């Protein structure tokens, strides 16, 4: 056995997690904080130095390339910032367990990324799914228990497909053994397609891609808010999209049909997630559906086959982990101060929590694709890449790609509308009387959201100079790629600033504003008549073309988990009816089964 520094990415946080079991909470926090700092430094050392391999029984098990290092860097960065938020404010009843599971999750996530052996990948991939389950049941409520079970069935069940896909790769390319670092499997023949789509199922389930997405909003609503930012918003997104990128770029050689199919699934994921987010009144569930929607852009980019769109997809993956973690943590800070994440019960907190408000506003601008924040640049690269592909396709494919592109651009507009609702409902409007004494979040919490906000701005203003140049373009080995030509974030800031200035001048010249109290029947309006930030969106929910779809979605008719559950129970009930305990019927079924078997063998 040859152990290299790569192994420390797994061993150190795993050992710390085990030690934390017997330590008091304060020492658990300090030791976990020291661990994430060490892992960040170790990852930087691996990034800048000569990478070695870990061998077990003369077989390479752990190794890293530029893609793996890119993912590892942001696992450590996001883990450190979210831990900073978690150092103060985690609920007392599960604080001890949280700081055991936190380093353990980092260890398993690192293990999944550095694994170049199929067996190792299966083990660590499955362990990350168990971490999801354990974080989900922390609250010990019925809702949390149901969500944990749902998460485990969807994410854990997809592990079966991962195993089958990896076994088929070994069967198709036995010369490589179980090694995944050098495969280039041609998508020709049924087994190759089955292998590819089996692994795609595992990637979609982990990242939250349509139609395996329904666990994400439920987990976001019922799990601790810190774990919602840590897992579906950050680490699970990195792992799921990493696996999709790995099989699309290095393990399989995709066909034009598969590229078109992945682009279509990406567009469906975008529009499905954002349409459901529009009508949510629970802030965490709204963010959960947006975590689904944003995956669609990544799937489109990485699955497109265009270098520009692939770079955009990888960049969007990083951008999403930054601004979505920021939004979850900002909402978490509000929730911890107010005791609720229901948008109808919030409002007017911008003056009481100005730093949290600013962080949430920056996150909202970024996820909505407003330039010059980071979300705009990565989305625009994906759009340009899809258009680039369309030029070389037949007329039918061009129309189809144009429809997909229109859907995702429309989805981006709906994202902006949705976050206007989010920001207004929490920070603007009239503040409920019960929230009159709310104060700003603790130092560690607004510092964490502030750091993520700085990344949203920095990765937008200096996209070419920082993340693209140092992390993403080396993955694609495309240092000279033309990144949107003359795009200038500073020019955009100037144009936006000029438009704002003109608007302010017009406002000050023409303003005729009077502020007054709201009266009903000559009396001051009661608290229950306060207009919330979600009121306008209730009309969207009840529009005739959409009402039926939303009704079906809320009844779980579009949820693959509930559909599977009802089908399973229906089949079980059928067999229960058939096998009623009478010997005559058992003998009949034995004879029928034997006849079917003989026909198959024949």
Approximate shape:
globular
Structural class: mainly alpha
Can you give the mean pLDDT?
A: 89
Q: What is the element string, with H for helices and E for strands? A: HHEEHHHHEHHHEHHHHHHHHHEEHHHH
Helix-strand blueprint:
Layout: H1 8-20, H2 25-48, E1 54-56, E2 59-62, H3 66-86, H4 95-114, H5 118-136, H6 142-172, E3 185-186, H7 190-207, H8 215-222, H9 225-251, E4 252-253, H10 256-278, H11 283-303, H12 307-338, H13 354-367, H14 374-391, H15 395-427, H16 443-461, H17 464-476, H18 489-510, E5 519-520, E6 523-524, H19 535-541, H20 544-554, H21 560-578, H22 583-601
Parallel strand pairs: 3-4
Antiparallel strand pairs: 1-2, 5-6
Helix pairs in contact: 1-2, 1-4, 2-3, 2-4, 3-4, 3-9, 3-12, 3-16, 3-17, 4-5, 4-9, 5-6, 6-7, 6-8, 7-9, 8-9, 8-11, 9-11, 9-12, 10-11, 10-15, 11-12, 11-14, 11-15, 12-13, 12-14, 12-16, 12-17, 13-15, 13-16, 14-15, 14-16
3D architecture notes:
With 602 residues, the protein is an all-alpha fold. The protein has a domain at 566-601. It has helices spanning 8-20, 25-48, 66-86, 95-114, 118-136, 142-172, 190-207, 215-222, 225-251, 256-278, 283-303, 307-338, 354-367, 374-391, 395-427, 443-461, 464-476, 489-510, 535-541, 544-554, 560-578, 583-601, and strands spanning 54-56, 59-62, 185-186, 252-253, 519-520, 523-524. A two-stranded antiparallel sheet has the order 1-2. Helix 9 (225-251) packs antiparallel against helix 12, helix 11 (283-303) packs antiparallel against helix 15 (395-427) and helix 13 packs parallel to helix 16. It is globular. The mean pLDDT is 89.
């Amino acid at each position: 056995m040859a152990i290299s520094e790569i192994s420390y990415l797994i061993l150190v946080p795993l050992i710390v997690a085990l030690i934390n079991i017997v330590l008091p909470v304060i020492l658990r926090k300090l030791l976990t904080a020291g661990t994430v700092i060490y892992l960040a430094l170790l990852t930087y050392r691996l990034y800048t130095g000569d990478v070695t391999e870990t061998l077990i029984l003369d077989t390479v098990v752990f190794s890293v390339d530029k893609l793996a290092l890119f993912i590892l860097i942001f696992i450590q960065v996001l883990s450190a910032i979210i831990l900073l938020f978690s150092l103060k404010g985690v609920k007392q009843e599960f604080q001890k367990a949280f700081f055991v599971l936190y380093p353990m999750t980092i260890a398993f996530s690192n293990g999944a990324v550095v694994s170049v052996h199929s067996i190792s990948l299966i083990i660590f991939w499955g362990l990350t799914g168990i971490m999801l389950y354990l974080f989900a049941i922390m609250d010990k409520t019925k809702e949390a228990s149901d969500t944990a079970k749902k998460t485990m069935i969807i994410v854990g069940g997809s592990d079966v497909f991962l195993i089958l896909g990896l076994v088929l790769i070994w069967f198709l390319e036995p010369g490589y053994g179980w090694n995944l670092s050098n495969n280039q499997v041609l998508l020709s023949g049924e087994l190759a397609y089955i292998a590819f789509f089996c692994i795609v199922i595992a990637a979609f389930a982990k990242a939250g891609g349509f139609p395996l997405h329904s666990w994400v909003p439920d987990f976001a609503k019922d799990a601790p808010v810190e774990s919602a930012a840590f897992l579906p918003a950050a680490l699970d997104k990195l792992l799921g999209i990493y696996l999709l990128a790995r099989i699309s770029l290095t393990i399989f050689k995709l066909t034009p049909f598969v590229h078109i199919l992945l682009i279509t699934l990406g567009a469906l994921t975008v529009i499905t997630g954002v349409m459901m987010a529009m009508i949510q009144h629970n802030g965490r569930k709204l963010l959960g559906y947006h975590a689904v929607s944003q995956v669609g852009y990544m799937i489109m980019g990485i699955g497109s086959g265009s270098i520009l769109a692939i770079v955009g997809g990888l960049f969007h993956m990083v951008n999403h982990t930054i601004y979505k973690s920021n939004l979850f943590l900002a909402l978490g800070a509000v929730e911890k101060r107010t005791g609720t994440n229901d948008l109808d019960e919030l409002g007017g907190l911008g003056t009481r929590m100005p730093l949290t408000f600013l962080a949430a506003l920056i996150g909202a601008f970024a996820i909505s694709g407003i330039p010059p924040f980071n979300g705009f640049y990565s989305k625009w690269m994906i759009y340009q890449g899809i258009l680039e592909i369309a030029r070389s396709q037949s007329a039918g494919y061009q129309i189809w790609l144009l429809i997909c592109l229109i859907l995702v651009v429309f989805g981006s507009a709906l994202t902006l509308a949705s976050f206007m609702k989010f920001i207004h409902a929490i920070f603007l409007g009239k503040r409920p009387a019960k929230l009159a004494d709310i104060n700003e979040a603790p130092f560690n919490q607004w510092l964490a959201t502030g750091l993520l906000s700085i990344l949203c701005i920095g990765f937008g203003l200096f996209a070419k100079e920082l993340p693209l140049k140092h992390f993403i373009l080396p993955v694609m080995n495309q240092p000279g790629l033309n990144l949107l030509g003359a795009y200038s974030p500073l020019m955009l800031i100037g144009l936006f600033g000029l438009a704002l200035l003109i608007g302010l001048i017009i406002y000050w010249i023409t303003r005729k504003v009077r502020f007054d109290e709201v009266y009903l029947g000559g009396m001051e309006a009661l608290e229950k008549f306060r207009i919330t930030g979600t009121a306008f969106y209730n009309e969207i929910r009840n529009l005739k073309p959409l009402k039926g779809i939303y009704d079906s979605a809320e009844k779980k008719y579009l949820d693959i988990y509930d559909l599977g559950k009802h089908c399973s129970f229906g089949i079980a009930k059928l067999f229960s009816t058939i096998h009623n305990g009478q010997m005559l019927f058992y003998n009949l079924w034995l004879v029928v089964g034997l006849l079917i078997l003989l026909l198959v063998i024949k």
